[in-house]
Structure formats: structure tokens, C-alpha cells
Amino acid sequence: xxxxxxVAPLALAAMACSIVxxxxxxxxxxxxxxxxxxxxxxxxxxxxxxxxxNGGNAIDAAITMAAVLAVARPHMNGLGADMFLIxxxxxxxxVFALNASGRSGSAATLAELRGRGLETxxxxxxxxxxxxxxxxxxxxxxxxxxxxxxxxxxxxxVVLAREGLPVSERLSLDIAxxxxxxxxxxxxxxxxxxxxxxxxxxxTLTMPxxxxxxxxxxENGPDEMxxxxxGGRIVEYLAERGGLLLAGDLAAYQPEWVDPIRGxxxxxxxxALPPNTQGVALISELTMLDRIDLKSLTHNSAAYFHTxxxxxxIAVADRDSSVADPDAMRVTVExxxxxxxxxxxxxxxxxxxxxPGHEAATDDDHPNTVYLSVVDEDGNVVSLIQSLFHSxxxxxxxxxxxxxxxxxGSLFRFDQRHPNVFAPGRRPYHxxxxxMILNDGRPWLxxxxxxxxGQTHTLVQVLNNILLFGMTPQEAIDAPRLRRLPDGAxxxxxxxxxxxxxxxxxxxxxxxxxxxxxxxxxxxxxxxxDPATGEKRAGADRRREGWSLAY
Length: 551
Prior knowledge:
Blueprint: E1 20-21, E2 30-32, E3 36-39, H1 42-53, H2 58-72, E4 82-89, E5 94-100, H3 110-115, H4 134-145, H5 150-163, E6 165-166, H6 169-177, H7 179-183, H8 186-192, E7 204-205, H9 208-220, H10 229-241, H11 247-251, E8 256-258, E9 261-265, E10 268-272, H12 279-289, H13 294-297, H14 302-322, H15 333-336, H16 339-347, E11 368-375, E12 381-389, E13 397-398, E14 403-404, E15 435-439, E16 442-448, H17 455-467, H18 473-478, E17 482-484, E18 490-493, H19 498-506, E19 511-514, E20 525-529, E21 536-540, E22 547-550
């Protein structure tokens, strides 16, 4: 096997080239005329930059980064995750979208699950596992648009898993926060709780089983995950635990190329993923807000926050009642995004209005996701997101593989009146929502964020910060923001002035100030392409472990 390069951890210090690194703590963008990358971990951003500088394109860099993130953020994504992607191809000017989410298993029907006494699928454990789609998605997009071989793209992840991941304070705390969940599963505890405790910051976490799995993928191709030894281990393990996935479910998996959904905002074109994702909520929110003079409300005023929260409330109500596997939906995307309908909603949003009635809270949110973006020298652009859903997903690690299995299947409902009702071979609803903005048909901004249910909340505010309030990507990401909670309360970062918080309280909101830089508000990343000069300006979020590089 020939590998063009190897990315060693922290190799940037030895590189003799012009690199600008985004420093979120200093509020500075990464800027470069050639290419830019941003990812949910510094080592992934480094790996992507090295790909570009070695002659790879944006797709090569993106898949390399996605694989590295599977090692560097093991509680948030991995080989057992799902993935979605938007890609702008500079040569043709076309935009493509890939749905790499897996389907539910076929070992039981809804009636049979009910017969076991279940009223819903468990949040963790074997019944929560649907087919993991990320690996098939990586291979599909790399094979169609990449120039690197499959083995080359995976090599940096192999090296990191084998030689060890430097444990940051953030990772140590995240693992410690899930210690009880991990202790409930022998294999998970063995890997992530050495000496029955989270690895301390400054130590190294090696994952030899995961490295060996990556090597099998390199040698045998992506089918290894679905019909090879690795796929067989997944099916056998889940069968022993009473899961729903059969060998045929893995073998039948195929990622799906779809048309991105589109909306207009301030004369720009917004691209997002169609269902089974919440991309429709992002387009809905922006379509409503496009009819309101937000700039005149001033940035992060009480009127501005109220208006944003109302657009989110309306869009989320649509999303929660309607979005599912498109084959099961009872309304169309076109109906949900009908401009006359959304304009009617917008007319009912009064920037000077009061909070709506308190709502019943829905399920807890689990914002455990990673996002990455790439712009290469030729103008190819990637916006990619992948996730395990809950922290450490289902809690299950397939013995001998290092693969943490996601728990997206837990999002299915048992209410047959709802389109997201469980059925064998059906894709569950997804919160994952990568985005891209076009200006006159050309990419202007690629951006996304972890944050579960709150992803669109973050994206709307970051976009407005750049487009309406003139901030750079890093300034836009650093600015304090709100998150509307399922019960209607507003979580707001305490860097917002007290008088604004008091004014929202006077409008009837329950306002929950949050201190510090917490992951509750997402982990936004963005790359802006200057339409006049072609310069790339990238930013990443200090609320997580995001990092950006440009050259």
C-alpha cells in the first residue's frame, strides 16, 4: 500500500510554509489566498491543510479530516456515525448534496416492539442503533470527486489512533461527564476509562483496535464496514444484545445523492439538506426573517432576540410535526417552504411583542456532533457534518473494533400518526444541518455547527452577524448568542448586557444567563470567500475545540 504522506500529530510547527491559524481566543480569522480549512479539532484542521498543500482537492481534505475527527472526537463522531455533505464543484458550477444517514434495522416491526412492552425506543443500547452511514458516505464522495485513494485519505486517522491522541482538558472533562454511561459497557469502559477514570489532560489515549479497523478499511475498501469482517462483527454483537440490525441491513446500505434545498436571504442563496434533516427549519427561519428589518433592531437587542426566537419557534413547530424520512412525510418540502405561507407567519412576528405562552419541554438535546469545511485553490467547497447523536452514541463499542455505534434510531416515534414513526428500513429524523451560501451562483460562505436541536439557532445568528452587522467570520462566531430551549425559555450568554436580559424578562420570557463559553451554544465554523479578491477568511468556535487554518 503506497501512502503519499503521513500526518504526525502537531506537525505544523515543523512546516516551512505560510500558514495563518485562526486564534479564537484572540478573535482573529485565518486568512489565505489559496485554501482554507476549519474543523472540530486542531489535528483534523492540520490534516486537511496538509492534504491541500500536497496537491489534494477539497474533497480529499474533507474526507481525511472526517476520518481524523473519528479519532480525535471519539465521543461525538466516528466510524459508527452518520454524515451529510454539501459540495460545490468549481469545474461545473454545480452543487451536490449527499445523505449518508443509515436506515433502521429489520429484525422487528413496530407491532413486535410494542409486543415487547416498549412504548418508545430506548435512548441507548442495541435497540437505538440504526445503520451507520458515514463510512459509505466518505467512500461515495471521495470516489466521485476526490483525487486521493481511499487508503491515503484514511492514513492520518490510522496514525493518530495507533500513536495516540493527546488528551485535552475538554476531552478529559467530556469523558468524565459520561463515566457512568461508559462503566455500563465493558468494552467502552476498557477503552475510555483506563484505571476506571477518564484520561487526564496531557496524557495520550491510544486506540489500537480502532487503528486496526481503519487498516482493514484501507485494505478491503468501504465494503469492509458493511459486508466484511467488521460488518460481521457489528451484526454478531448486536444480535447477541438483541439489536435490530441484520446482515442484510448493512449490506443494503447506500448513501444517497440528493438535491439541496434552497432559499433566498438578502439577495443571497441559502443551501441546506432536505429531509430527513432539519435543513427545512433553517430555510424557513431565514425566509421569515428576510421580511423583517433586523438591522434596524440593532445587534443583540431585546427586539432582535425576540424576533429571532419567534422565527425559530414557528419553524421548529413545522419541523417537529412534519420532518422525517421523505418517503414517510405527509407534506412536501415545497409546502413547508411555500413563500406565501412563510410570509404570513412573518407578518405575525412583532419585534416589540411579548413572549408566547410557555411550552411543554420535549426530549433533552444531545449536541454531540462535529463539523468541518474546506475551500481549495480551485474554488471547490465542502460543508460536512457527522455525528453519533448522544455523547458516545448508543454507549456500545463493538468488541475488537473500537467502533462506537450511534443511537440515531432512538429518535423514531411509536405514534403511527407521526411521519417519523418507526418502521424497518426507514431513516430517522436528523438534526444535522450543514449549510452553504451562494452569491450570484458562486460560494460566498460555507458554515455549520454542532448543537443538536439548536444548530439552526446558531447558524442564523452567525450569518446575520456577518451579512447584516459586518463582522468577520471569527467575530461573528465569538459574538454572544441565544438558544431557544424546547420549553420556550431563552438561554443567553452572559456577555449580553444585563439591560437586554431584563428587557426580555419584562416581555415574559424565562431568561437563563449562561456563564463562560459553553458547548450549549454550538461550535460554529465558517469560511468566507471574498468575491472580489478570492481571499478565504475562516473562523472557529472556542466553545468547543474548533480550529481554522489558511494559506
